Amino acid sequence: MRLNCKASLAFKKLRSEAKPAFGQNVINSLTPPPLLSSKKTEVKKGAAVADDLPIPLGELTDINTDLAAAVSDSLTGAHTARASLKNAIIAWDYAFGRTAEYISAIAEGDPEIIRKAGYVPTKSESSPAQKPGAPINFKATINGTKGAIIASSQKAVPGALFYLYSALPDGATINYVNDTIVITIGEHTIYLSASTGKQTELYNLPSGTPLNVSMVAVNSAGNGPASASQKVIPQ
């Protein structure tokens, strides 16, 4: 598959205290007069770049400043401060992610343009990754050991990084909504998210409903102990 150089989105994984410095570098790089050039025009002037940004420079600056303040406030350890930090990180990731996508578009594969905009060039697939298909000839049987079930697919699913298996009693339902797994048992609903990273976001949660949130690490040897749960009320 043909590869195009794009602005790396790895900055989203930076520690929260490191993000404002990265953001300020992007803002400074995009503030007129920058040195961005375009293959479609001889020179893409700073004013034109700033005018075309999906998130205006002023708004980017405010978002970056808000995150820096939230990081400072979070050092107090207050619950409200930690919640504010999480919201500030979400807003920051979205804003600078959108800006990175815009820079990738005008760069048209030129890594120098990406660097001059304050981002790091990388290479990725020219077409977006596709979700894997359904497992073929799935089969679940007992294996003769008390309390054990064998579940398998006849063939590996192309593009799959890992597999999630479920075993539900009658009366329970399971739905897959984007990256969130929703299990309903009677009047109770359980929300699960499987991720290869140490951070994830669960979506489609009911607003105002207290939820106990925890995580557990899994490898080929099995799962480790779960973290202590924390009660969170989605907005």
Features:
single chain; 235 residues; alpha+beta; 3 domains; 3-stranded antiparallel beta sheet; two-stranded antiparallel ribbon; 5 helices; 11 strands; 31% helix; 19% strand
Rg measurement, Å: 23 Å
Which of globular, elongated, flat, extended, rod-shaped describes the shape?
Answer: globular
Contiguous runs where pLDDT drops below 50 for at least 5 residues:
34-48
Strand order in space, largest sheet: 5-6-7
Q: State the total count of DSSP E strands.
A: 11
Alpha-carbon distance between the two ends: 42 Å
Content-based structural category: alpha+beta
The helix content is 25-40%
What does the largest sheet look like? 3 strands, antiparallel
Strand percentage lies at: 15-25%
The mean pLDDT is: 82
Describe the 3D structure.
The protein is built from five helices and eleven strands. It folds into three domains: 123 residues, no CATH class; 32 residues, no CATH class; 65 residues, no CATH class. The chain has 235 residues and is of the alpha+beta class. Strands 5-6-7 form a three-stranded antiparallel beta sheet, with no helix packed on it. Strands 1-2 form a two-stranded antiparallel ribbon. It has a two-stranded antiparallel ribbon with strand order 3-4.
